[in-house]
Structure formats: structure tokens, C-alpha cells
Amino acid sequence: MRRPSGMVASDLNGLRWRKSRYSSPQGNCVEVAALPRGGVAVRDSRDPAGPVLIFSHAAWKAFTQCARQGVFD
Fold it and tell me: For 14-60, how does the pLDDT look when each residue is reduced to its tens digit (9 = 90+)?
């Protein structure tokens, strides 16, 4: 099923999704996958067939750097 925002995880078959080693056992986390042509896909681990956010490599790097620095705390 397509969602108004665009892409769903099933559109991205064959990606290697991974979770952070800091993820909680309850499954409250996101999963990320490198895209074959560059960039990063992000999805909710509780809804693996649901919507996916796509980021350029530069945008993902900036986001993760800010998260590590506590910018969003």
C-alpha cells in the first residue's frame, strides 16, 4: 500500500536493515539501511513494512553528529 508521503519499506527490497546496539529490547527504535545509490533509508522497527524516510548521506551525517552532541536533548 502506498502512503501519501511516498515510499514504503516494501519498495526497498534487498536492503540490509540494522538497529543501533543501544536499542531497547522492547523494540522502540528505528532501523537504518544504506541505499545502493547513496543515502540512507530509515524506518520504524515496529512497522517494518511501513513508511520510510530517505536522507542524503550529508543530511544523515549532520543529523547523527547533532544527536551525538546532544543538540536534540
Answer: 889 998 877 777 767 889 999 888 889 998 888 888 888 999 999 99
The C-alpha angle with vertex 49 and arms to 19 and 1, in degrees rounded to 5, equals: 155
Outline where 1-73 has alpha helix (H): 57-68
Task: Please state, in angstroms and as integers, the Cα–Cα distance from residue 33 to each residue in 19, 29, 60, 69, 71, following that order.
Answer: 9, 14, 11, 22, 23
- DSSP structural state of residue 20: -
Counting Cβ atoms within 10 Å, is residue 26 exposed (0-12), middle (13-18) or buried (19+)?
Answer: exposed
